[in-house]
Amino acid sequence: MIMFISQKKSFIKSGLLNDMVDVHSHILPGIDDGAGTYDEAVKSLRWLKSKGIHRIYLTPHVMTDYPQNTRKYILEQFEIFNNKLENDGIEDIPKLKPGAEYMLEPAFEKYKTEELLTYADRHVLVETSYITPPIGFLSILEKLMEDGYSPVLAHPERYNYMDMKDYKHLNKEGILFQLNFLSITGAYGRHAKEKALQLLSDGLYKYAGSDFHHLARYEGYYQLKSLTKKQTTALQYLIDNNEELW
Questions:
Q1: Which of 181, 159, 175, 171 is CA-nearest to residue 203?
Q2: CB neighbour list of residue 107: distance below 8 Å, 6 or more residues apart
Q3: pLDDT tens per residue across span 8-65
Q4: Whether this model's pTM surpasses 0.90
Q5: How many domains does the chain have?
Q6: Do the Cβ atoms of 23 and 119 come closer than 8 Å?
């Protein structure tokens, strides 16, 4: 009897990365827990370009752990980085745009006073603690929408305090979800993987990003054979949606 075995593919072999817009990364050097140096950032960007990713938002953390990361400072550092890339004649990297990932914490009200860094002028990437939600979580998101922003909740699969009822409620309220696509490989543990697969199956995600920090940490996960055909199709829909943010 002939046995047909479902062949799983890696992100690299799946074709999902081809001309992808990555909407979440920490590669702007030296300003958060991502790339620490210019050389590390360039090496990471070259590797990502070689795997098919042609456009990337650089979205450093904006939170009390990094008090220097104001809108003004991030844009200054982005310009400095871009100018050095140009002066060094480095062209074999993805196209870059500046962004930010905002922690929903008491200081968030201060961040809002200086105008938020966004995708496509209105979408704003936000996150919370993995353990507990901020006080007035839903009210913060509702106020953002009242102010004309469209909140994109980063990596919801990693929030231990949420269950499927919470996700469906937030989704119904108009909050958009961004999958860390490497969650599906187990990069963030079994629990995040299981939740990511459930959210993906239920069609609750809108976008997908890498949340890339360090090449040494993530390179192997891009090459891990973990994707079924059905998952690849669902992920392609999210990656296609990323285009509207560019």
A1: 171
A2: 63, 64
A3: 999 999 999 999 999 999 999 999 999 999 999 999 999 999 999 999 999 999 999 9
A4: yes
A5: 1
A6: yes
